[in-house]
Amino acid sequence: MFAFITFDPLYWILVGPTMLLAVWASFRVKSTFHHFAQFGVRTGMTGAEAALAVARAGGALDVTIERHQGFLSDHYDPRSKTLRLSPDVYDGRSISSIAVAAHEAGHAIQHARSYAWLNFRSNMVPVASIGSSVWVWVLLAGMLMQQPMLTNLGILLFGFTVVFQIVTLPVEFDASNRAKAVLAASGIVSTQEEAVGVQKVLSAAAMTYVAGALTSVMTLLYLLLRNRD
Question: How far, CA to CA in Å, does 42 sit from each of 57, 86, 130, 187, 193?
Fold first, then answer.
């Protein structure tokens, strides 16, 4: 049914280009962050201060800010309404720190305003988590035992993770747009140079989500095509 993926030309034709895009996107987000980490903002705010200011300006009044270990491990936890910022972002006073912190605050604003796509993604988390953990084992079991039902179930479970990644895209883009709007309106970003830097940092970060989603979509297409053989 499925050729061994490593040696299957179809896999590399479909998925290979998106994998290269993902590698490039990962390199670009790190290099862009490091570049703009060298430039401060006139307000002198830290990422933690900017995140709190953006969240409150957007209506997320009960959000908590915490320091979280790991480079670019920043995220918003809607369960506890907590923004967890990596040390470089939490303590940093650079354009990069402000951009990333404000983006995460954008998610808190989405939560406070019941943004539909965020709610949809949150509801998908349990299914997507299970699917991403077990789909490959279910698929392999179906292949080895020659059980089409198991094979189809594995593909279906992977499909849930693909949908989750696609739904993530509007959530991430919207969070960045909210962040940029509040940064400009509040004066946290006060010059054209700072605004351009914020835009470049957030665009580089967004590309990692796009590349990841494309890779998953093309992998799903490959699985569906090979399942017909």
Answer: 19, 22, 45, 10, 11
Give the confidence band of 5 by pLDDT, cuts at 50, 70, 90: low
Spell 28-38 as b/e; 16+ CB within 10 A means b.
Answer: bbeebbebbbe
Q: What average pLDDT score do residues 200-212 get?
A: 97
Across 82-91, 124-133, 139-148, the highest mean pLDDT is recorded for 82-91
Distance of CA 109 to the CA centre of its chain: 17
The overall pTM is greater than 0.85 = yes
Q: Which residues have C-beta within 8 Å of that of residue 67, sequence separation ≥ 6? A: 48, 84, 85, 86, 87, 90, 91
By annotation, the residues acting in catalysis are 104
User: Does residue 146 register a pLDDT over 90?
Assistant: no
Burial class (CB in 10 A: 0-12, 13-18, 19+), 160: middle
Inter-CA distances, 83 with 54, 118, 158, 163, Å: 12, 15, 29, 25
- Report how far Cα 35 is from the mean position of its chain's Cα atoms: 21
3 state DSSP class of 89: helix
- Tokens 């670019």 identify what position? 72
Strand partners, 65: 83
- Spans of all domains in the chain: 5-227
Q: Is the pLDDT of residue 95 over 50?
A: yes
Q: Are 89 and 103 in contact (CB under 8 A)?
A: no
Q: Are 97 and 51 in contact (CB under 8 A)?
A: no
